Each structure stands twice: as C-alpha cells, then as structure tokens.
Amino acid sequence: MGKVKKKCCRSKPKRCKNCPVVALRLRRLGADELTGMKLRKALERARVY
Predict the structure, then answer these.
(1) 20: helix, strand or coil
(2) Which domain of life is it from (predicted)?
C-alpha cells in the first residue's frame, strides 16, 4: 500500500490513499491478498466518508 501518514487530513470528498483510516479499513477487509479490480474496489470502499 505504501507509506501511511501519522494523522488523517480528512480531505473531501474522499480520503487520501495514505490516510491511516484507509489503511485500517483495508486491513480489516483483508486487502493483503487482493489484486487487480478487487483491490481497486476495496480501496474505493475504504476511502468513502
């Protein structure tokens, strides 16, 4: 996923990809094993406010 920031910037309308909240949500979804389109969809779901 890359480097995760220390604090969420709460950018609207979607959170940034390096947000710690997004990283936590992806970890909960089990995104470590996902690739391709499934990973992209999981990232979209994690970035929603």
Answers:
(1) helix
(2) Bacteria
Percent of the chain as helix, strand, coil, to the nearest 5: 45, 5, 50
pLDDT of residue 2: 73
Measured at the CA of 5, the angle between CA 30 and CA 46, to 5 degrees, comes to 35
Residues 18 and 44 sit within 8 Å (Cβ to Cβ): no
Q: Give alpha helix (H) positions in the chain.
A: 20-29, 36-47
